[in-house]
Amino acid sequence: MVEEISIRKIDHVKFFVGNARQSAYFYRNAYGFDVVAYAGLETKVKNEAGYVLKQGGITFVLMSPLRANHPDASRLILHGDGVSDIALQVDDVRESYNLAVSRGAVGVIGPRAVEDAHGVYHYATIRAYGDTTHTFVNRDQYHGAFAPGFDAIDPSRYNPATYHETGLLAIDHIVGNVEEGKMNEWVEFYRKVLGFEQLVSFDDQDISTEYSALMSKVVQSGRGRIKFPINEPAHGRRKSQIEEYIDFYGGAGVQHIALATNDIVHTVRALKANDVSFLRVPRTYYDTVLDRVGDIKENIEELADLGILVDRDDEGYMLQIFTKPVQDRPTLFFEIIQREGSKSFGKGNFKALFEAIEREQEIRGTL
Ligand code: FE2
Known about the structure:
The protein is of the alpha+beta class.
């Protein structure tokens, strides 16, 4: 048996949603993904429908149940739309699964090899925080569109793109919100079960405004190719944004997915033109930002117009912006990030950002 699970990268992120067909429209036309594969009744899949969307190195899979007796149908009532699985590509699915389970992971689906005309697709699934899972995937012997059950869709069968190209390249990090007192447990899960290493940690002194206190630790794998920050609520005067998430999601789950670009000004302009809504910080943020972060190559006026935030650490700087939640519940949202050397997560922006989130919470009456 192998000593370490060799995780290559995030293979795909699976969203369980109420209406995969309509979600595919959103991710195509707002975020600029290509719709490349489909599963459903027409491909002999009886109980669910799914769309595979790709852009740069990012793969999203949107799945919806077709009937009430689908094993996961009830999660739509409990969680609403959200991320159900973060699939990790590994060298060997069976060894990864066996090693994870021997170290305490809870198995959901044991190792399987599914064969169709395009080859053999290997996968196995373990539990992560809340109802989220990790599926180990190996597609070295599989040459189909995505996985057995899915047929390729020629992206050109859709009308020519009327959206603005967004230039999203990769998943930078995926953040989980867990219940109060559970952060360390999940950090240990990633360290001991999956062999991640722990990065910087923030405590509630670093990350608190009057209300939205949280604690956060980051685990990473593959020298930073995969980064998972884990948040838990900390005590503030009123309700933490993490508690708000857990209330509405019905437990722990994925809070945000950060998508990397190498030209955030272009990306955010395009996303705005596609009608994506972002959180705004007050204009006064830009009065002092350059004193804090020093020289940057971007035009500060342009960043201020778009509401892009800047932070710096010892290794460089980074630019980031956060969308509003992408479903009715105040749960999952996206971050757009451009790294110019910095490997951190924008700690210097937390205060301005959390105040912006609190203004939204105030409007929702959940503060
Ligand atoms: Fe983030």
